[in-house]
Amino acid sequence: MNTTKTAADGVCVISLDGRLDTITAPQVQPEIDTAIDEYQNVALDFSGVTYISSAGLRILLAGHKRAAAAGGSLKLAHVSGQIMEIFEMTGFTGILKREADHRQ
Amino acid sequence: MSELKVDAETENLGEVLEFIASETPGLPEKTRQNILIAAEEIFVNIAQYAYRPGTGKTIVRVTSGGDVTIEFEDCGAPYDPLQKADPDITLSTEERDIGGLGIFMAKSLMDNISYRREGNKNILTIKKEIS
Hints:
The complex is a heterodimer.
Chain A: E1 2-8, E2 11-20, H1 25-39, E3 41-52, H2 54-69, E4 73-77, H3 81-90
Parallel strand pairs in A: 2-3, 3-4
Antiparallel strand pairs in A: 1-2
Helix pairs in contact in A: 1-2
Chain B: E1 2-7, H1 13-23, H2 29-49, E2 57-63, E3 68-74, H3 101-109, E4 112-118, E5 121-128
Antiparallel strand pairs in B: 1-2, 2-3, 3-5, 4-5
């Protein structure tokens, strides 16, 4: 899992590239936490995410709660159809608001 | 039928998923992905709970060709993860707890999932029908 971080207009965008699974999710979580603490508003660019298991969902839920507690938000962008099906199956579509076009 | 025996440790997840992928060639990408997610949830569950606080082995058996059947065997304490109640996926973020989601995903992604206790072994079987 590779990540790149950019920030513009007070929003931090983290682009994720690879699998979000039991091994990689705990590696990505601190990066999301740090970004939330620093910017409050964070968007995850999911265009490079090819796989997500419950470990990945776990850090999204944790990130969402952390951002809400900080008065910000955690949004997802560019979610593939296959990943979206996993979100729908697990009731995550309502939890995580997507942004179709976040600023690059 | 092919078999892989590994230490039940999450660090072996990659090896388990590669084994399953190599034993199930030619599947549509989405089908393969769903099988791998279900297999991850089952294997990780065993790795985290079956032998705690000790360690032990897991045997993964894959049968493919037509439908795909994967058996996970461990010699841990008797445990049927299917008895666990499904999470309430309609709850809001604040109320939402992540517990039980992995097994729920495995159930949802596969066509059949079953548990049996054979002697001192837990055997969990997941099956995907290939049309």
